[in-house]
């Protein structure tokens, strides 16, 4: 019965083992890794809706000031793909309803990457 005094209860606290980086999801890189460059429009629309849901969930669960953290974790190809999806989602009905969300993502992405992805979006013939 004397051993209970030797137990380090602070080591058992779950908050001591989690860091803020552990809570950052890997969904943005995964969703932007391999965009479907196919002719099937249903596949493209489904993937676009998935990317929109990922962006919306990040907005709902994190502060807007953390967006640059997510964007800076992406490779340059993924950042280009993110801009493509932002533009594509803006042209949809559900994108028109959530314009503030998309504009905040666009603003933070351009703050991190500069205008390069926007120029590449306009010059690239491959559409998402």
Automatic annotation (TrEMBL):
What does UniProt give as GO cellular component?
Arp2/3 protein complex
Superkingdom classification of source: Eukaryota
Q: Where is the composition biased (Low complexity)?
A: 22-36
**Main localization, broad class:** cytoplasm
Q: Where in the cell is it found?
A: Cytoplasm, Cytoskeleton
Describe the function of this protein: Functions as component of the Arp2/3 complex which is involved in regulation of actin polymerization and together with an activating nucleation-promoting factor (NPF) mediates the formation of branched actin networks. Arp2/3 complex plays a critical role in the control of cell morphogenesis via the modulation of cell polarity development.
| Family indicated by similarity | Belongs to the ARPC5 family.
Can you name this protein?
Answer: Actin-related protein 2/3 complex subunit 5
The lineage is: Eukaryota, Fungi, Dikarya, Ascomycota, Saccharomycotina
